[in-house]
Specification:
Strand order of the largest sheet: 1-5-4-3-2
Strand content: 25-35%
Number of strands: 5
Largest sheet: 5 strands, antiparallel
Structural class: alpha+beta
């Protein structure tokens, strides 16, 4: 499954937030980082894998965030909703 959104946060900030959202000690969907580069981070969860990519939108609308998974993962929607407003928040409680 592939899901995406656009945010005003920079690609670097999106990847930083993805790392924190999924690897924080109190995360609702704990994961470990399997691979990463300047434009993506791949995370392993229980029975799933998430690939988060962030890049500038070609039409200049901000940063496009794309999350791919092997199967449905409820926290992907929560992460995308969170990252849509990431430019307005500075860290947070990821257990909700």
């Amino acid at each position: 499954m592939t899901s995406e959104t656009i945010t005003r946060a920079s690609p670097e900030r999106v990847l930083e937030e993805a790392r924190r959202f999924f690897t924080a000690e109190d995360s609702i969907s704990p994961a470990t980082i399997l691979d990463e580069s300047g434009s993506h981070v791949t995370l392993g969860t229980f029975r799933n894998r998430l690939a988060v990519a962030a890049f500038l939108d070609p039409e200049g609308r901000g940063t496009r965030v794309r999350v791919g998974t092997l199967r449905r993962h409820d926290s992907v929607g929560k992460f995308l909703r969170y990252i849509e407003t990431a430019d307005a928040v500075g860290g947070g409680d990821y257990s909700k």
